[in-house]
Amino acid sequence: MSSPANRRARTLESVYRAWGEPAGWISVNGDVITGIKVRRIAQEEDVVDYGGSSRAVVERIVLRVRVAEVSTARKGDRIEIMDDAGEVIDAYLVADRPLKARMGQEWRVEVEVADHGNGG
């Protein structure tokens, strides 16, 4: 019988194969990883109360990527979502320190929208 971590890894592989979007990852130090898949999680909204009558709704975009594909994720890294022809359709910058999800096999990355040009 396989370990829970191995079962989780096989499950994640199936999930990303079915629902992952093709992407490229460009690290802050210029390393490029192509042929990966990321999952976009529905935008999460937080209500920030500034005291008194000031409140703002802050939208966050969260991406998930397998650690097996991106071993080191850092604030400032760039993620480019590709269409089937390999063209960039969306680009993001890692906005906060990436966190490893349960069992350490997936990065949870909070991002902000970036321009669609090449590089940062």
Q: How would you describe this protein?
A:
By secondary structure, the chain is mainly beta. The protein has one domain (4-113): Thrombin, subunit H (Beta Barrel). 13% of the residues lie in helices and 48% in strands. It has one helix and seven strands, in the order αβββββββ. It has one helix spanning 4-19, and strands at residues 21-26, 32-49, 55-66, 78-82, 88-94, 99-100, 106-113. The chain has a six-stranded antiparallel beta barrel with strand order 1-2-3-7-5-4. A hairpin with a 5-residue loop joins strand 2 (32-49) and strand 3 (55-66). The longest helix is centred in the first third of the chain and has 16 residues, at 4-19. The chain is globular and about 55 Å long. The N and C termini lie far apart (45 Å). The mean pLDDT is 87.
What descriptive keywords fit this protein?
120 residues; mainly beta; Thrombin, subunit H; six-stranded antiparallel beta barrel; 1 helix; 7 strands; 48% strand
